[in-house]
Design goal:
- The chain has two domains: 75 residues, Multidrug-efflux Transporter Regulator, Chain: A, Domain 2, CATH 1.10.1660; 33 residues.
- Helices cover 64% and strands 4% of the residues.
- The chain is built from five helices and two strands.
C-alpha cells in the first residue's frame, strides 16, 4: 500500500476509503492482509484522484463518471449494426431487448 500511496501521492487511508466506494478498486490481498495493487489498480487510483481532487467531483459523481466511461468503452451505447441480409427474428428480438434495457436505465437514472 505504501508504494501505491506514494505513486498516487495520496495518504493510505484515502486509498482504503476509495476501495470501499469504488467497486472496481479491489487489490489482491497477500498473507497477513497486505494489499497488492496491480497496474490497472494504480491506473484506476490515478483516474479517481483526477476526478475527485483536480476536477473537484464528489465520490458519487466520480463513480458515475467511471461507470459512464466503462459503458462507452464497452460500446453498449453504440448504434446497433447488422450485416447485410441479417434482418431475421433474432436481430429483431435483440433490438427490442436493447430498447427495453435503455428504457430501464433511463428510469433508474430518474430516481
Amino acid at each position: 500500500m505504501r508504494d501505491a500511496s506514494r505513486l498516487a501521492q495520496v495518504p493510505p487511508h484515502t486509498l482504503r476509503y476509495w476501495e470501499n466506494h469504488f467497486g472496481d478498486l479491489r487489490p489482491a490481498r497477500k498473507t497477513g492482509g497486505h494489499r497488492r495493487y496491480s497496474r490497472s489498480d494504480i491506473e484506476l487510483i490515478l483516474e479517481i484522484k483526477e476526478l475527485i481532487q483536480r476536477r473537484k467531483m464528489t465520490v458519487a459523481g466520480a463513480r458515475r463518471e467511471l461507470i459512464d466511461r466503462r459503458r462507452a468503452k464497452s460500446g453498449f451505447d453504440a448504434p446497433l449494426t447488422r450485416p447485410a441480409g441479417a434482418d431475421g427474428p433474432h436481430n429483431k428480438l435483440l433490438r427490442e431487448v436493447r430498447k427495453e434495457l435503455k428504457a430501464i436505465l433511463e428510469e433508474m437514472g430518474r430516481q
